[in-house]
Amino acid sequence: MMEDHSTGGLQRNSVGLPTVLMQSIAQIAPAVGVLTTIAFNTQQAGLGAPSTYIAAFAIGLIVAISLAQLGKHLPSAGGFYTYVSVTVGPSFGFLVGWLYSWFVAMIPGGLASYTGFVLQTELKQHYGITLPWQVVTAAILVLVGYVGYRGIKISGKMLTIFSIIEMLIVLALAISGIASPGPGGISLSGLNPASSTNLHGFYLAVVLSIFAFTGWEGAAAVAEEAHNPRRVIPRAIIGSVILLGVYYVFCAWGIQVGWGTKNLTALANSSENPAFVVAHRLWGAGWVLVLLALLNSGIAVCIACTVDSTRNWYAMARAEALPRWLASIHPTHHTPHRAVIAQGILALLIGLVVGSLVAPDQSFFMLGTLGTIIYVFVYLMGNIGVARFFLTRARRELNILVHIIFPIVSTIALFLVLYYSLVPLPTPPVSYAPLIGLVLFLAGLAVLWKLHSRRDSRWKTLSEYIVDADAISTDGPGTLSAPVSAH
Questions:
Q1: Is 11 helix (H, G, I), strand (E, B) or coil?
Q2: Distance between CA 128 and CA 121 in Å, rounded?
Q3: Cβ pair 86, 389 in contact under 8 A
Q4: How far apart are the C-alpha atoms of 374 and 369, rounded to whole Å?
Q5: CB 433 within 8 A of CB 99
Q6: Distance between start and end Cα atoms, the chain
Q7: How many Å apart are CA 150 and CA 159, to the nearest integer?
């Protein structure tokens, strides 16, 4: 009833901590995070731009630590869908799963088109090569679809390889910047928030930097395919935030120093990505490696998001909250292959059609704003779930700081992020994001109303199924168990 037992379900015990950790890291997108935020953060915070990543890191870590607690008790392919269904209620869990899975499923399309757009622009400008962004977009998404179809092992290997390459390239650029600084020499002032141009600009830069940390929750989606998920998932979630927190701060500082701290106005207003400019100065023809890092990052994110969204769809379909065909498992690859195909078609539509209508970069920024709105809702419901779960069912483990204070602090921070993201409202088409979010939410309510109108209400309890980690053997597929509702 819960799985397609004729095909054996997802491939249990197939990946360990390193792969699960890279799932989160890839979905956070290290190279994309640095390359797409450094100019805006410098524009807003000036010399103090690198320190905005420190503030965002602190906030992101608080959010991750509290929400990772649910991964210890509720490992499931549904991730936040399952977490919220168990702790707050199946209706809220459905809305969380609906909004989150749709958004994550759209990311590959937007990011692939943005990556193609940047490649087209840079290759034409520097080499006179015309490579249509549509070709790059389609190539990335076809590759990602194939990898996602083949299984979690090949997905994990691919996103690990691409992520490591991108991180090493950008890290090397930051180290080169420190070794050969621009005007102003090496200065630690960028790590001091007091060096920021003004407080308001610092806040705006922190908002964007916080969004650059989102994606760590992607580890939760592979819980049913991981070894010992109750230990591995929380470690991957928290470990990815810590690792990339240090990485973002160091790389942003290194690139700033490499540009020159006495010429930051030019960095903020640069028509070309500042990292590319620094790479041209320091590496000459080798600057193309940074372009390669962006391409690698785009592919890794797309793979990670495909894994995340399709596992969410699989879990929701398994619970009969979405069409059952999305829960179909490939008999050989043990992947939700129909969900992968559906997600691939959606990604192509977003990448090629929406990208052509509003321009690839604007499509990407619009999705980023939409993501901010959805992430605030998802994390908010997760925070409520953490507090409720540890005040009731897991009261013996209650830690006031982690389970009560952290959720409250992070919720306040999330609402500030939402406010500064939407006030003032960005210019079109980015300003369409709230409307798109509203349409998705209303569509989710309509589906939820239909679910409630059924005589069969099994979806309410099936949404709470989790992996029984103690019952998973090295040979067998493991079992699923439904915890007793706390509501």
A1: coil
A2: 10
A3: yes
A4: 9
A5: no
A6: 24
A7: 13
Helices (H), 260-332: 264-268, 274-283, 288-318
Q: What's the gap between Cα 136 and its chain centre? A: 22
Q: Alpha-carbon distance 166 to 109, whole Å?
A: 20
What are 423's two structure tokens?
């006030």
What tokens were used for 153?
């092992």
| pLDDT recorded at residue 65 | 94
Token pair of 300 as six digits = 């890794």
* φ/ψ (deg, to 5) at 453: -80, -10
CB atoms closer than 10 angstroms to residue 452: 13
DSSP string covering 373-437, please? Answer: HHHHHHHHHHHHHHHHHHHTTTGGG--IIIIIIHHHHHHHHHHHHHHHHHSSPPPTTGGGHHHHH
pLDDT at 52: 95
The dihedral built from the CA positions of residue 109, 113, 115 and 116, taken in this order, carries a sign that is positive
Domain 18-455 listed as CATH 3.40.50.1000? no
Q: What is the mean pLDDT of each run of 10 residues along the chain (487 residues)?
A: 51 91 95 92 94 94 93 92 95 97 97 97 95 98 96 93 96 98 95 92 88 91 92 95 96 97 92 94 97 96 96 95 95 95 98 96 93 94 96 94 95 90 88 96 97 90 72 36 42
- Whether the ω angle into residue 336 lies within 30 degrees of 0, i.e. cis, is no
